[in-house]
Design goal:
Length: 182
């Protein structure tokens, strides 16, 4: 995916969220977006900006660090948590949890565990930029930018500004043979 395709996918997610808010009679003024660190928080910020003209306010965005909640081995010998930034409680709020890639479901499971520390949401819906097959947990996205069929031994790398030098989604062989998203 190039930068334009990523923008179109996020725009599509925005439309699906607005339809969901309308059809489910959700009070939009309580809506909060929580992005899984690092690229999920960037997507959540972009969604918040896109939702603002339709809702009349910019939904708050939190950045959730799931490092200490993961149940799989760390990818590197030393992983330093970036910390969670959430200046609001989740109690009784509709929450959209946002991530870049849904693959095994392990990151989302960790995020759900971490979110409990910030309150009890009215409900949680999941938005992902890219969904691929290979779930290990029974977790499904509610709002999807793009579905893709990718060999289990391939990596999906998401690059988003300002963290990366460009916006793009790339598929490449996994040299370590573990598959994954980064």
């Amino acid at each position: 995916m190039n930068a334009n395709q990523i923008s179109e996918a996020i725009e599509g997610i925005k439309k699906k969220i607005l339809l969901h808010l309308k059809t489910e009679a959700v009070e939009p003024s309580k809506l909060a977006l929580v992005g899984i660190r690092r690229r999920g928080e960037i997507i959540a910020g972009r969604l918040s900006s896109l939702l603002q003209p339709h809702l009349g306010f910019k939904p708050p965005v939190g950045a959730l660090d799931i490092t200490m909640y993961r149940d799989d081995p760390m990818r590197s010998p030393l992983t330093i948590p970036l910390g969670t930034e959430m200046n609001f409680r989740l109690d009784d709020r509709p929450v959209i949890l946002v991530d870049d890639v849904l693959f095994t479901g392990r990151s989302v499971r960790a995020a759900l565990d971490a979110m409990v520390d910030f309150g009890r949401p009215q409900f949680i819906r999941l938005a992902v930029l890219v969904e691929r097959a290979g779930r290990e947990y029974p977790i499904a996205a509610d709002f999807i930018g793009r579905n893709t069929e990718v060999d289990r031994n391939s990596l999906i790398r998401v690059h988003l500004r300002p963290l990366d030098h460009q916006d793009g989604v790339f598929i490449e062989p996994d040299k370590k043979g573990k598959g994954g998203q980064r």
